[in-house]
């Protein structure tokens, strides 16, 4: 891959993370109006409709087995991940979930190491992961270091992280198929919504429409649907396609940083010294992980070039 494509991939990952970091604020405000399951279903329904309008042509499969990949990605990346995360928040502390979900890059790296070609682990990745995890811990607990285990809720958060890792690896595989990213994402949303229907039936779908149609709740719902779902899943999937599952996943370290900054601006929440230190560590962890892959690639490309020159 040339340098320009790498820059595009990193840019898409940054766009995604900047918007995903602000979704917690929109979700928090919407929870005053509708339930977590209703938020989840409506945001992806809006995203699905937007992608249909953007790319109305039907995706024609070149191989029927590809359908299974799309269905699995829909279940993992849309239905299971968000449901597990939302349910975990009802059984354990948000700070616990924030730290636990940040181990996504670790799960992704392990899975990709055994499943995907060219996604191998190294010491530098683990160093970046360790530094970033300490930073996320400081941000999530904001100076309050009483980490309390809540086995069921924390287990759900771990499962959410593992499910997203599976989704990332599936997207790397789907990225090798001869389909457009928008159409592929639309198909993934379809399966995510489809598998969400039984949960809606069980939990009941009775949103407070009068409150939801007020300007502020409507704005946040549209942001989640059009921005954080339709746009961001396309940009994230494109980044995975360009950079790989592991390299893209490390950007998740920055989500708590964006959330803290946005919360301080929008919700007027206080930024403490612990948060500042945690932010710096999260960014250092990201840079350390990213730099590792660039070094490996540069050495590999240099060795290949040397062999070609020698053989010539």
From TrEMBL:
What protein am I looking at?
DMT family transporter
Return the PANTHER family for the record.
INNER MEMBRANE TRANSPORTER, S-ADENOSYLMETHIONINE_S-ADENOSYLHOMOCYSTEINE TRANSPORTER
Q: Does the keyword Transmembrane helix apply?
A: yes
Task: Supply the alphabetized keyword list.
Answer: Cell membrane, Membrane, Transmembrane, Transmembrane helix
* Coiled-coil blocks: none
> Which chain regions cross the lipid bilayer?
12-31, 37-57, 69-91, 97-116, 125-143, 149-167, 188-205, 217-236, 248-267, 273-291
- Database matches in InterPro entries: AA-Vitamin_Transporters, EamA_dom, EmrE-like
Keyword match Secreted: no
Instruction: Please state which protein family the record places this protein in.
Output: Belongs to the EamA transporter family.
Pfam families associated with the record: EamA
Q: Which compartments is it annotated to reside in?
A: Cell membrane
Q: Which SUPFAM superfamilies match?
A: Multidrug resistance efflux transporter EmrE
Segments forming domain EamA: 9-140, 152-289
User: How is this protein situated with respect to the membrane?
Assistant: Multi-pass membrane protein
């Amino acid at each position: 891959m040339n340098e320009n494509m790498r820059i595009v991939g990193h840019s898409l990952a940054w766009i995604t993370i900047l918007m995903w970091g602000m979704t917690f604020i929109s979700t928090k405000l919407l929870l005053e109006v509708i339930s977590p399951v209703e938020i989840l279903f409506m945001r992806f329904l809006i995203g699905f409709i937007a992608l249909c309008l953007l790319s109305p042509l039907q995706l024609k499969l070149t191989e029927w087995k590809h359908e299974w990949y799309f269905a699995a990605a829909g279940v993992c990346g849309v239905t299971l991940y968000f449901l597990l995360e939302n349910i975990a928040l009802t059984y354990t502390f948000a700070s616990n979930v924030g730290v636990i979900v940040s181990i996504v890059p670790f799960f992704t790296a392990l899975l990709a190491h055994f499943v995907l070609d060219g996604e191998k682990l190294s010491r530098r990745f683990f160093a970046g992961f360790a530094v970033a995890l300490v930073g996320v811990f400081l941000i999530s607990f904001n100076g309050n270091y009483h980490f309390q285990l809540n086995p069921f809720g924390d287990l759900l958060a771990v499962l959410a992280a593992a499910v997203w890792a599976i989704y990332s690896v599936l997207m790397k595989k789907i990225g090798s198929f001869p389909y457009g990213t928008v159409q592929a994402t639309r198909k993934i949303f379809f399966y995510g919504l489809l598998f969400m229907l039984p949960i809606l039936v069980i939990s009941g779908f009775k949103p407070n429409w009068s409150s939801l149609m007020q300007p502020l709740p409507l704005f946040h719902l549209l942001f989640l649907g059009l921005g954080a779902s339709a746009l961001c899943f396309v940009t994230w999937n494109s980044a995975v396609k360009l950079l790989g599952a592991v390299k893209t996943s490390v950007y998740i370290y920055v989500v708590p940083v964006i959330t803290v900054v946005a919360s301080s601006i929008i919700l007027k929440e206080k930024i403490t010294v612990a948060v500042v230190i945690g932010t710096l560590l999260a960014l250092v962890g990201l840079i350390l992980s990213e730099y590792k892959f660039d070094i490996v690639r540069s050495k590999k490309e240099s060795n290949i070039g040397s062999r070609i020159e020698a053989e010539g």
